[in-house]
Amino acid sequence: LDLEKIDSGMMPVEMENIEVSKLLQDCRDAAEDITGERVFAVEIEENNDLYIYADENLVRKALLKVLLFASDRISRTSRTSRTSRTNYTGQQAKVIMAAQSFEKDSVVISIAIDKFDISDEELDALFRRFKFAGNDEGGQSSLLGLYVCKTFVELCVGSASINRDKHGGLVFNLKFQPSMWIFVLGSRNRS
Prior knowledge:
This protein is α+β, with helices and mostly antiparallel strands.
């Protein structure tokens, strides 16, 4: 249904100020309720009330699509691994959500997936529409949800990217406009 709305240009976008820490907590809880897994952790930049200006419904859906993708990949890895949901250090695999502001220019919500095994070909295709990636059973699984995620972020005048981290994991970065009214209040407090 979301893809049909995107294709038709009929996806409503209602921009508003959104408290990031509450949004991340809500998304973590929703993903854990859906998956029945407790692999998600949330970290928020200390002493910083972060707000973004975006469509809360679209941002929530985008974050959930990444979290569910991460949970699915962790589950697949654990089914084929003798360590059962543990990485090679013996620790439980984790998905960490963090938010950080960059010089009042943007707020980036990062979702880091610990020890994520993916080929370069799959990595390059993650946000492409109708691109498929092999799964551990030898079949095909659609990555359409990540294409929709990126589209939702772009509808909110943001951007989405994926990078490898230095520890062999993946980091999804969703970049949004900061809330404008925070700057007005902040400049008043300085005078």
